[in-house]
Amino acid sequence: MGEKEARPAHFPEPTRRGEITLRLSEFEFPPMQDILLVGKRAPIGPEAVRRMVDALSPEQYDIVRLEHSLFEAVVVKKSLLRLLPRERLLPIILEEGERVATENTIVKVQANIVIHVSRAVEL
Question: 3-state SS string over the chain?
Fold first, then answer.
């Protein structure tokens, strides 16, 4: 007497769900980075950079001359521009580059552009 009988705890039935998330990003090939910001007074100029990238990775980079206070040019991997148009990518890169670079430097940028895709399908 005085002892209570133990009741079995009531737990809800477990549920199982599945989810698929896809991230598509560019495959990277070293040693070149995705983007180079070439300062106006950098040790090597845009033409030297062009020869270097053409030797390492022919036809894979665009060199864009700039009218900018710090940078003379930006070297961008062409495949990035297929994911994000130049008009959208370069302002972001220049804005962030201004925070860390001087006109004497060359800044390499690793840019990961990830496209998220989620689709509903009828079952």
Answer: CCCCCCCCCCCCCCCCCCCCCEEECCCCCCCCCCEEEEECCCCCCHHHHHHHHHHHCCCCEEEEECCCCCEEEEEEEHHHHHHCCHHHHHHHHHHHHHHHCCCCCEEEECCCCCEEECCCCCC
